[in-house]
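Is this the right way to post structure tokens for a design question? Let me know if I should format differently. Anyway, here goes:
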């Protein structure tokens, strides 16, 4: 059985504490169904874009959103590029739907299924989808496509994957932190590189499934892949350093990798927590405003100021489709009620929420 070597550092403990606190706030927040659906959709788009972009997919986040809505982007793309996007959506939908099924095990069959969903329909992968590779593969980098890592030979892949799955089962029995399990599983999977193509997407999907299965689905608001895509040098740099060590020693120390990976989860959990807090603040403000005798324009203006910070009278008139005189009157009434206050004077006069 695979036995990873790592030390839990103070930084990792700190990150885990922050993740748990953020998760608790998020799952307990009284969010309206419409807003929850919006957060889930945003996370889906970010995850699909980030995981495929890391592998060189050229679609922007906006173009990914268009494809997921069934629309055709203005730019022309290869069929493969579109399939990578729609396939990864299927992967994430499968994870969201299947993770809480009591009978679902994170085993070789599940991993093979994740890979099949990732690459199905892609030219050249018809006979490889959901099957371990039978040839040697390489990881290359740079314009010269220099080999930077050679994974284990194909005949060792089944045994290595079996060892990883056995460790995953034991780690869950021993109640190892889900974040550490997810981190180590991702590293070992990428080191084995069990498939001829699609290893990166499948590995990140596997890590997400582990988090979900071990109780941290976070209402599907969470996008682990986004941090890696925003920090590719950190992501690949940490993997590269350990792979180099792996080439010299089949039992490298994973402490640095675990610390990086858990920090990535912490950053993304913080981001989701911040979004939820903004929503809750807006809900409180809406309730407070409903008790005030203000018109619809003024109500929208206060919400706008909460998001954007300041507003001038001519901007008010244009945005809320009223005359300049009406805008000035509305703003004066909001000042009289103690909701806003002026800043500056003359042409620089702006209005902000009263502190």
């Amino acid at each position: 059985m695979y036995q990873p070597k790592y030390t839990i550092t103070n930084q990792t403990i700190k990150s885990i504490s922050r993740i748990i606190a953020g998760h608790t706030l998020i799952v307990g927040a009284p969010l309206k169904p419409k807003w929850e659906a919006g957060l889930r959709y945003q996370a889906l788009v970010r995850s699909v874009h980030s995981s495929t972009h890391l592998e060189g997919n050229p679609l922007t986040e906006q173009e990914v959103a268009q494809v997921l809505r069934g629309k055709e982007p203005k730019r022309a793309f290869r069929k493969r590029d579109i399939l990578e996007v729609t396939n990864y959506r299927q992967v994430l939908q499968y994870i969201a739907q299947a993770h809480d099924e009591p009978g679902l095990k994170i085993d070789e069959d599940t991993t093979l299924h994740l890979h099949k969903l990732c690459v199905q329909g892609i030219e050249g992968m018809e006979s490889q989808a959901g099957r371990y590779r039978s040839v040697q593969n390489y990881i290359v980098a740079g314009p010269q496509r220099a080999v930077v890592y050679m994974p284990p030979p194909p005949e060792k892949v089944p045994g290595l994957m079996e060892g990883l799955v056995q460790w995953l089962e034991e780690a869950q029995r021993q109640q190892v932190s889900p974040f550490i399990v997810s981190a180590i599983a991702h590293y070992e999977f990428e080191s084995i590189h069990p498939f001829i193509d699609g290893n990166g997407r499948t590995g990140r999907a596997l890590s997400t499934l582990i988090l979900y299965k071990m109780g941290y689905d976070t209402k599907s608001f969470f996008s682990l892949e986004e941090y890696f895509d925003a920090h590719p040098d950190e992501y690949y740099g940490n993997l590269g350093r350990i792979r180099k060590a792996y080439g010299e020693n089949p039992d490298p120390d994973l402490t640095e990798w675990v610390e990086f990976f858990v920090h990535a989860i912490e950053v993304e959990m913080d981001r989701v927590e911040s979004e939820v807090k903004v929503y809750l603040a807006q809900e409180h403000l809406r309730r407070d405003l409903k008790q005030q005798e203000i018109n619809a324009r003024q109500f929208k203006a206060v919400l706008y100021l909460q998001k954007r910070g300041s507003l001038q009278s001519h901007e008010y008139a244009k945005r809320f489709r009223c005359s300049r005189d009406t805008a000035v009157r509305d703003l004066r009434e909001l000042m009289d009620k103690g909701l806003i206050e002026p800043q500056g004077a003359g042409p620089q006069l702006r209005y902000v929420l009263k502190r």
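Format looks fine. Someone answered above. Worth noting: The chain has two domains: 10-274, 292-353. DSSP finds 14 helices and four strands in the chain.
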